[in-house]
Amino acid sequence: MPHVLETGFEAIDNENPNGSPKIRGYNIIGGRLELASDGSTFESKNPAILTDCLGVFPLSTKDDVHKALISARSAFSGWSTTPAPTRGQIIGNMGRLLMEHKEDLVRLETREIGKTLKESAGEIQEAIDTCLFFQSEGRRLYGQTVNSELPDKELFTYRRPLGVCGIINACNFPSAVPFWKMIPAIMCGNTCVWKSPQDSPLLSFALARIMHEAGLPDGVVNLVHGKGSGAGQYLVNAVDEGMVDKISFTGSTSVGKMIGEICGRNLVSCSLELGGKNPLVVMPSANLENAVEGAYWAGFGTAGQRCTSLGNLIVHEDIYDDFMHIFMEKVRHTKIGDSLDNDDVLYGPMLSEKYALDFLDTLEICESSGARRIYGEGRITTDSSPSGFVGDADSGVYMWPHVYVDVTDDMECFHEEVFGPAVTVVKAKDFDHALYLANASPYGLSSAIYTNDRLEAYRFKTGIKAGMTGINNSTTGAEAHLPFGGVKGSGNGTRESGIWVIEAYSYWHAVNDELSGKLQLAQMDVDEIHIEEAEADYKSLA
Ligand code: UN1
Question: How far apart are CA 57 and CA 359, in angstroms?
Answer without folding.
Answer: 26
